[in-house]
C-alpha cells in the first residue's frame, strides 16, 4: 500500500464524527480462543483477513459502557451465532510491543469502517484473553467486516497467526489442560449423547496423551457427573457402545466445587 493512499484513507476515517470514533476504550482489546471438538479432533475458530491474508483469532474492542465480559460475549455471538457460551478469562497479554506495527491496520483502513484513525491501532494494546468451549455442530462461523473467511482448523494444523496470537492460543490450551485437573470438561464440547470412548478421546486430545481405558472409565464415573442411558450408538461396525449424557446439576456442582485427582 502506498503512503499517499494510506494517508488519504486515514483522512477519510478522521472525518467521522467524534461520537462514532470514540465509542471504544483506548488501549484495551480482547482475543478469544474458541475450541470445538469434531471427528476426534480439537479444533480452533480462526479468521482470514481480506487484505493482508493474515490468520487471526476472533477478537475485538470494548465499548465505553460495557464490561470486558459483556464485550467478549458480544464478539463471540457474532462469530458463532451462539447466545450462551462457556467462556473463561485466562490471561492478560501486556507486552509493550505486542501490537506495534499491526499488519491488520491496512485491513482496517480499507474496510471503511467507523474506527479512530489508523495510528490508534499502532499504539500499545493490552489484550484480555478468553477461551470458549462450544459444541462444534451448533456453531455457524461468520467472518467480520475485515475478514473473508471464518472457519474451524484442526489444532495441529494451525500455522502462523498474526501478532502474538500463537502465544495466546498456546496459553489457552495450557489453561484448558489445567482445568482438567480440577473441573470437568465435555458438556460444552460434545453432543448431548456420547459414548465413553468419545469422552475419553476428547480428554486424550486435549491432554495430548493416551489414557488407560479402564482407569478413565472408573475415574469419570466416580465423579457422578454422567447418566448412563438405555440407548446404544447405532450404525457402528462392532458391538454397539452404550450412550451417556451429563448430569447437569452434578456437572455444575463439580465446576463450582472442583474435582480431585489428576489424569
UniProtKB/TrEMBL annotation:
Keywords for this protein: Hydrolase
An annotated Gene Ontology molecular function: hydrolase activity
Record domain Nudix hydrolase: where: 25-177
Pfam families, per the entry: NUDIX, WHD_NrtR
Xref: Gene3D superfamilies: Nucleoside Triphosphate Pyrophosphohydrolase, Winged helix-like DNA-binding domain superfamily/Winged helix DNA-binding domain
Domain of life: Bacteria
Keyword Hydrolase applies: yes
Protein name: NUDIX hydrolase
Species for this entry: Aquipluma nitroreducens
Amino acid at each position: 500500500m502506498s503512503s499517499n493512499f494510506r494517508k488519504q484513507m486515514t483522512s477519510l476515517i478522521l472525518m467521522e464524527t467524534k461520537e462514532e470514533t470514540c465509542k471504544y476504550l483506548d488501549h484495551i482489546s480482547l482475543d478469544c480462543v474458541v475450541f470445538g471438538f469434531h471427528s476426534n479432533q480439537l479444533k480452533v475458530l480462526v479468521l482470514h483477513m481480506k487484505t493482508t491474508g493474515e490468520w487471526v483469532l476472533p477478537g475485538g474492542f470494548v465499548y465505553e459502557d460495557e464490561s470486558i465480559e459483556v464485550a467478549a460475549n458480544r464478539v463471540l455471538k457474532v462469530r458463532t451465532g451462539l447466545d450462551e457460551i462457556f467462556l473463561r478469562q485466562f490471561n492478560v497479554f501486556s507486552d509493550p510491543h505486542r501490537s506495534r506495527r499491526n499488519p491488520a491496520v491496512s485491513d482496517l483502513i480499507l474496510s471503511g469502517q467507523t474506527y479512530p484513525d489508523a495510528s490508534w491501532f499502532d499504539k500499545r494494546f493490552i489484550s484480555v484473553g478468553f477461551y470458549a468451549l462450544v459444541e462444534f455442530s451448533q456453531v455457524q462461523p461468520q467472518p467480520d467486516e475485515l475478514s473473508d473467511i471464518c472457519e474451524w482448523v484442526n489444532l495441529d494444523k494451525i500455522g502462523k497467526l498474526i501478532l502474538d496470537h500463537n502465544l495466546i492460543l498456546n496459553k489457552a490450551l495450557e489453561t484448558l489442560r489445567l482445568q482438567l485437573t480440577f473441573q470437568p470438561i465435555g458438556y460444552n464440547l460434545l453432543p448431548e449423547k456420547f459414548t465413553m470412548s468419545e469422552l475419553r478421546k476428547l480428554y486424550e486430545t486435549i491432554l495430548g496423551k493416551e489414557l488407560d481405558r479402564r482407569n478413565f472409565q472408573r475415574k469419570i464415573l466416580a465423579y457422578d457427573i454422567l447418566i448412563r442411558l438405555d440407548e446404544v450408538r447405532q450404525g457402528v461396525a462392532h458391538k454397539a457402545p452404550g450412550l451417556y449424557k451429563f448430569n447437569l446439576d452434578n456437572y455444575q456442582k463439580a465446576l463450582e466445587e472442583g474435582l480431585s485427582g489428576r489424569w
